[in-house]
C-alpha cells in the first residue's frame, strides 16, 4: 500500500492527478478506484449567516472557550448532542428548528420524552421557528432574528453552531471526466453493489448517498471488498441501526411505529419503562423506555430504546432480526441479573399495548 498525501481530481477514466503539498503533481491510474470523499456541513442561505462565520461540528470540537450563549440551528444528531454537552458545561443554549418537534423521523412518544429531558436541563427549544437573519460574528456578540408563530423575536448570543444537514463532497473533483454521474442532489449514482456509472469505479459512504453513519460506511467497504473478490454483495435490505448519543441515549433499528401505520403493516406494540429494568435503578438513571413492534408471525419489525446505555441493547435485537428469530427467542433467554440486557427479556415478556 502506498499513501499519497495531496489533493486529487479525476482527469480521465480511473485516472487522477494529485497536487502534492510540497509542489508538483503525481498521476495515478488504477484498475479499481473507490471514491470516499465524504460530506460537509451545509450552511443555509440565510441573510448574514455565512458572514457571521458560524461553527460547524468541526469548529465546535476545536473550541477552547465556553460559549456564554450558544445558538444551535438544527435538531439532528449533531445539534442535540452538542446542545446538551454545552449546556452541561455551563452554556446557555437555544435550539432553533423549522419543524414542530425534534428528530422528525422518530415516533412522537420518543421525541416528546427526549424534548422533556432537554428542557429540564435548561435547553430552550425554539421549535416551529425560522431563522430570518444574523448580524455580528460567532465568538463575539451576534444577533439572530427569528420568525415564530407569534411573530418576530430577537435573540442575542455569543456563538452559533450550524447543524442543519450535510452535502456530499463531489464538486470540483473531475467526476465528469471519469464518466461518473451524479444524482440531482449531488450524490454519486451507484447501484446496489455501490458500483458507479464508470467501469471499475465504486463509491462508498456519504458521497454515495449511504445513510450518514460511520458504521454504514464501514459496511459499504465490506460490500465493495466482496464484489471485488467476485462474490455477490448488496446494500439492499440491510439493517441501519443508529444511536443518538445524548443522555439518555436513543437507539433504534428497523421499522418505526409511525412507518408501520403509514404502510398499513399490522403489529403488536410492546413497551416498557426504563424504571422496570432494574439495572437502571442501581445506576440511578431510570429515564426513558423500551418499545418493540411485533409482526403477526412473531418476528421483530422494529426496536427503539431511550435510556441509559440504549445503544448497547441494539446488537441482541439485531441478531434476532437478521436470523429471522421470533421475539420469543429473546423473551425466553436466561439473562444475568441485574443487567441492561435483562430489560429485553422483560420487554418481550410484557403485555402488548392496546
UniProtKB/TrEMBL annotation:
GO molecular function terms noted in the UniProt entry: flavin adenine dinucleotide binding; NAD(P)H dehydrogenase (quinone) activity
Domain of life according to the entry: Bacteria
Residue stretches making up the Pyridine nucleotide-disulphide oxidoreductase dimerisation domain: 240-345
InterPro entries with a match to the protein in the record: FAD/NAD-bd_sf (IPR036188), FAD/NAD-binding_dom (IPR023753), FAD/NAD-linked_Rdtase_dimer_sf (IPR016156), Pyr_nucl-diS_OxRdtase_dimer (IPR004099)
Claim: Signal is one of the keywords in the record: no
Keyword annotations of the record: FAD, Flavoprotein, Oxidoreductase, Plasmid
All residue ranges annotated as the FAD/NAD(P)-binding domain in the record: 17-219
Matches recorded under Gene3D superfamilies: FAD/NAD(P)-binding domain
Cofactor requirements of the protein: FAD
Family the UniProt entry places it in: Belongs to the class-I pyridine nucleotide-disulfide oxidoreductase family.
Protein's recorded name: PF00070 family, FAD-dependent NAD(P)-disulfide oxidoreductase
Amino acid at each position: 500500500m502506498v499513501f499519497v498525501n495531496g489533493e486529487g481530481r479525476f482527469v480521465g477514466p480511473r485516472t487522477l492527478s494529485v497536487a502534492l503539498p510540497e509542489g508538483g503533481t503525481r498521476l495515478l491510474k488504477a484498475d479499481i478506484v473507490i471514491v470516499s470523499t465524504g460530506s460537509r456541513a451545509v450552511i443555509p442561505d440565510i441573510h448574514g449567516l455565512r458572514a457571521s462565520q458560524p461553527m460547524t461540528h468541526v469548529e465546535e470540537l476545536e473550541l477552547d472557550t465556553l460559549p456564554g450563549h450558544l445558538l444551535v440551528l438544527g435538531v439532528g444528531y449533531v445539534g442535540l448532542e452538542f446542545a446538551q454537552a454545552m449546556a452541561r458545561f455551563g452554556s446557555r443554549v437555544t435550539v432553533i428548528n423549522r419543524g414542530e418537534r425534534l428528530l422528525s423521523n422518530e415516533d412522537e412518544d420518543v421525541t416528546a420524552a427526549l424534548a422533556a429531558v432537554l428542557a429540564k436541563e435548561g435547553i430552550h427549544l425554539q421549535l416551529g421557528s425560522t431563522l430570518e437573519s444574523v448580524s455580528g460574528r460567532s465568538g463575539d456578540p451576534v444577533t439572530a432574528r427569528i420568525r415564530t408563530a407569534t411573530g418576530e423575536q430577537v435573540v442575542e448570543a455569543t456563538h452559533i453552531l450550524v447543524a442543519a444537514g450535510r452535502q456530499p463532497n463531489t464538486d470540483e473533483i473531475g467526476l465528469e471526466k471519469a464518466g461518473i454521474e451524479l444524482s440531482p442532489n449531488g450524490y454519486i449514482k451507484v447501484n446496489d453493489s455501490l458500483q458507479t456509472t464508470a467501469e471499475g469505479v465504486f463509491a462508498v459512504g456519504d458521497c454515495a448517498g449511504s445513510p450518514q453513519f460511520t458504521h454504514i460506511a464501514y459496511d459499504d467497504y465490506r460490500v465493495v471488498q466482496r464484489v471485488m473478490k467476485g462474490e455477490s454483495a448488496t446494500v439492499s435490505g440491510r439493517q441501519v441501526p443508529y444511536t443518538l448519543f445524548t443522555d439518555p441515549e436513543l437507539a433504534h433499528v428497523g421499522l418505526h411505529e409511525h412507518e408501520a401505520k403509514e404502510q398499513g403493516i399490522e403489529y403488536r406494540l410492546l413497551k416498557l419503562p426504563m424504571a422496570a429494568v432494574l439495572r437502571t435503578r442501581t445506576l440511578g438513571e431510570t429515564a426513558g423506555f423500551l418499545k418493540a413492534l411485533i409482526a403477526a408471525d412473531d418476528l421483530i419489525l422494529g426496536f427503539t430504546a431511550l435510556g441509559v446505555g440504549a445503544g448497547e441493547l441494539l446488537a441482541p435485537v439485531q441478531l434476532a432480526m437478521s436470523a429471522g428469530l421470533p421475539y420469543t427467542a429473546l423473551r425466553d433467554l436466561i439473562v444475568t441479573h441485574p443487567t441492561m440486557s435483562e430489560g429485553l427479556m422483560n420487554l418481550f415478556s410484557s403485555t402488548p399495548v392496546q
